[in-house]
Design brief:
By secondary structure, this protein is mainly α. It is built from 16 helices and 4 strands. Strands 1-2 form a two-stranded antiparallel ribbon. A two-stranded antiparallel ribbon has the order 3-4. Keywords: Membrane, Transmembrane, Transmembrane helix, Transport.
């Protein structure tokens, strides 16, 4: 009874306090931990909040979050791909892929500056030398990818973009001495065969097929395979933000491209051509850059909330839809070889995802399927007998 009276004493019942009292008979400790909402300042957002385009997704339930993220990815990236192909469909624009990249980098730098002004911490954390390397790789990735559209069909370019695993695995073997399992090797083989088949189909049905486009998009893939590792290491090491990364990498890349176009005398013809078609070039380029900037925000939110497995599945579906819309909206020759080679690449992507998540994805073995079918037959025979 005396212990119960002590436990119910007013010193221990006050919330949010920590009392330590010593008496001759006993000592007792009362600890009250404040809730998360009480401990955090109302001016500071929760670390679990996921904000995309000013919208806090953490206020919604999981199905609503998934619907919003998937809708954003599909909407913005489908418009992005449509505008990219639409720009290159303008007669006479195909030689100016590097100038389009210059304009795109300029818009991305402006968007990154605006976003950086909206956050409290505006300091640059990542060293300038690192940004110079990242900017160079970004120029290679996006510049070569945009320029390749002057030589390749858009579906062929998208298929190549799906196969970033191949240069990553080659670099891992020769640079880091990595060893890969059977599933990884099978994924790379499926992607390689799908690429070869798709490229052969493109060269057969496209009268203006040029091997230069294949070389350009392959180099863009190699740069894209490297840049992800460099960006991730820099952001983790120096705790840099996404807006900081966008602002400095694209602004430095803008200077690189501007210098290169000036030295090669490629700036003046591009400016002259675009000034004659301002809506089809600068207008579409603005929307093209804006949708790409918004699209990556939803992809990052999808990864943070649901993980990379689901994000890869959604983005793969988006790329498949981009290929279908490309054939629907833009006149180009078609053959069933595109379908089979595309499905082979999709199989390679699935095997790659499965290899990284083998502990989460349990595929039934052939032996297990056979035993299950035998048991079903026995039960069926028994029921018929009864």
């Amino acid at each position: 009874e005396k212990q119960a009276e002590d436990d119910n004493s007013p010193e221990c019942s006050e919330p949010g306090t920590m009392d330590l009292k010593f008496t001759s008979s006993r000592k007792y400790i009362s600890i009250s931990v404040p809730s998360k909402s009480q401990a955090m300042s109302p001016h500071i957002k929760s670390v679990d909040d996921v904000v995309v385009l000013g919208m806090n997704l953490s206020k919604f339930n999981k199905p609503t979050q998934f619907f919003i993220c998937v809708s954003g990815v599909f909407m913005f990236y489908l418009i992005y791909g449509y505008l990219q192909e639409l720009i290159f469909s303008v007669e006479g624009f195909k030689p100016f892929g590097w100038y389009l990249t210059l304009v795109q980098f300029g818009f991305y730098s402006i968007f990154g500056l605006i976003e950086l002004q909206l956050i409290q911490d505006k300091r640059r954390r990542i060293p300038g030398k690192t940004y110079m390397i990242i900017a160079f790789l970004t120029v290679g990735t996006m510049g070569l990818s945009n320029t390749s559209l002057g030589y390749l069909n858009y579906p062929t370019q998208v298929i190549f973009k799906c196969c970033k695993l191949i240069p990553v695995m080659i670099g891992g073997v020769f640079i880091q001495g990595k060893r890969y399992n059977v599933v990884d090797v099978s994924a790379a083989l499926c992607m390689s065969l799908g690429l070869i088949w798709f490229t052969l189909a493109d060269s057969t049905v496209a009268p203006n097929f040029n091997l230069t486009g294949v070389i350009l998009i392959s180099l863009a893939l190699c740069a894209d395979a490297v840049i992800g590792n460099v960006q991730e290491k820099a952001m983790k090491l120096h705790n840099g933000s996404n807006s900081e990364m966008v602002l400095y990498s694209y602004s430095i890349g803008f200077v690189y491209i501007l210098f290169g176009l000036t030295c090669t005398s490629g700036l003046s013809p591009a400016v002259t051509f675009c000034s004659k078609h301002p809506v089809q070039t600068y207008g579409y380029a603005f929307l093209f850059s804006l949708t790409g900037y918004f699209g990556i925000s939803f992809v990052l939110a999808l990864i943070k909330i649901f993980g990379a497995l689901l994000a890869v599945t959604v983005t793969t579906g988006r790329k498949a839809m981009s290929i279908v819309l490309s054939f629907l909206f833009f006149a180009k020759p078609f053959t069933l070889q595109y379908v089979w080679s595309g499905l082979l690449v999709v199989l390679g992507i699935f095997l790659n995802v499965y290899s990284k998540n083998m502990d989460k994805i349990k595929l039934p073995s052939l032996l297990g399927l056979w035993k299950k079918s035998v048991e079903e037959r026995k039960s069926r025979t028994l029921s018929q007998t009864v």
